[in-house]
Design a protein that fits this description.
The protein is built from four helices and no strands. By secondary structure, it is mainly α. The protein starts with 7 loop residues before the first helix and ends in a 12-residue tail after the last helix.
């Protein structure tokens, strides 16, 4: 019998699960750095959330290209990382908005706001990154001339 991940749906489900694990690792590092920056370094929570989000994005990229996605559309690794992080800007904006709303409107702790934001950004980041960076149909230039 053929391996389940050989079908497009099987591959999508395998990548989604693996990306979920990579994102969970990224979220752990994101939240740890966020707590450290706010509690120890006294950095404003929105600035700290931005720094920790970008740091976690770099970690998730490294895990994604090594373990999650088998196809890589962009040949140049630095350009691919730039696209990966640029697509993450959508998530960063959602992240900041949800944390701000959770803290200033609902009066939740910033770490709980971060958890809520992570839930909102996970699926969007997976779908955007898979579509633009890790699937066969070209959408972004692979090389800069």
């Amino acid at each position: 019998m053929a391996e389940a991940s050989a079908t497009p749906l099987g591959r999508l489900l395998r990548e989604f699960g693996a990306y979920g694990l990579a994102s969970a690792i990224g979220l752990g590092s994101d939240m740890a750095l966020l707590a450290l920056l706010v509690s120890v370094a006294n950095v404003h929570y929105l600035v700290a959330a931005t720094i920790s989000f970008i740091s976690a994005g770099i970690l998730v990229h490294a895990i994604s290209v090594r373990y999650v996605f088998r196809f890589r559309r962009v040949d140049r690794r630095a350009l691919e990382l730039s696209y990966f992080l640029a697509l993450g800007v959508v998530g960063l904006l959602v992240n900041a908005a949800v944390i701000y709303f959770a803290v200033n409107v609902v009066h939740l702790h910033y770490m709980l706001g971060k958890l809520l934001a992570a839930g909102f950004t996970f699926c969007a980041n997976f779908l955007l990154r898979r579509h633009f960076l890790f699937s066969a149909a070209p959408s972004l230039p692979a090389r800069v001339s």
